[in-house]
Write a structure and sequence with these properties.
- This protein is α+β, with helices and mostly antiparallel strands and 422 residues long.
- It has 11 helices and 24 strands.
- Strands 3, 4, 5, 6, 7, 11, 12, 13, 14, 15, 16, 21 and 23 form a 13-stranded mixed sheet that branches. It has a 3-stranded antiparallel sheet with strand order 9-8-10, covered by helices on one side.
- α9 runs antiparallel to α10.
Length: 422
Amino acid sequence: MKFFVSLLLLISFSISFSQTNDVDNKYLEDQFYLGLYYSTLTSSPENFNQNKFSSTLNFGFIRDLPLNNERNFGVGIGAGLSLSSSSSNLKLNEINNVISGEIVSGSGGIIDSFEKAKKIAKKIGYPVMIKATAGGGGKGMRAVWSEEGFLDLWESAKQEAFASFGNDGMYMEKLVEDPRHIEIQIVADKFGKACHLSERDCSIQRRHQKLTEETPSPFMTDNLRERMGKAAVKASEHIKYEGAGTIEFLVDKNRNFYFMEMNTRIQVEHPITEQVIDYDLIKEQIKVASGIKVSGEHYFPKLHSIECRINAEDPFKGFRPSPGKITNLHLPGGHGVRLDTHVYSGYIIPPNYDSMIAKLIVTAQNREEAIDKMRRALDEFIIEGIKTTIPFHRQLMDHPDYISGNYTTKFIEDFQIEEKYA
């Protein structure tokens, strides 16, 4: 029996879920109630090891969702599960046998005390990354370079995780230094078949929050794409995943890739995949939820697409949030320009939610043309009354390291915004 829910909040949220006998309608209705509803269930080491996974949420709809032992199901935009390397259904050794890449060494589960965290960090070696089990959007993550200051980072990460997700569970991974963040889009059906739709490079980040994405990755090779795609499909089929999802990897300078997590939902950056392979992910997600088989064919980029996340933040003041009223708005357009947004002139941006107000996507025959097109689109994009990240993105398109494709997740640390882009 299939259960499909459509939500409309800022943009259309499509959520597909396959109902099993042990998850009744009442439970599902409670979990997907439209509004800031919090489940009375709480995450703990006990239920974490009983096929319950903490949700990775942007809007706080779901806190915990019990999964059937036989299948794992994808959830739609804005709400979903983050199956990390500490999740019980994706044990480290099990993934290592399935994925043909590497697995970042770590705690292998929730860490229940700071003393245990210190012992694990000493065993795997600094630097390490501590992460919230219910994390998402960079919340509850801290890089720890030595034992000095570890306690403060541990406590601040737990506090941030609890404030963001109502769950302060933490796990740990070995920190891969200066990596690329590259993810593989997959779609899988209930018949055990999955296909991949190639990669997205999400390495331009601030505090682990993605700022811009592109596909194909300028760092990608045919061999690496084949290996990463094969690994993503193997992992999806192994856990009997159903729906659209993303397998996220860190890739080092030698093009070794390391499994990071699986996001079981449509992601913010999905439009660039749609643009380069002419594939409607929302439509395919609905088809899979209705029981239609995937072809098993893999899809590869035919064009080049870049997405810039336009946030209501001031890049000249440390990306400080900038809520308020939009007094004037002019939207970019033209061939190969796509804009996903809910704002309009006169719209008041509240201070309570995520600061992203638009996604600007451009598509062209090659990367050089895509960068040129993004420059023009950003120059046309006028938002007055508030501050936005448009100047940051405009300078990024002129940065020699970005133009050459020579960037990692550390890029933003040395980036200085210039007044001429104001």
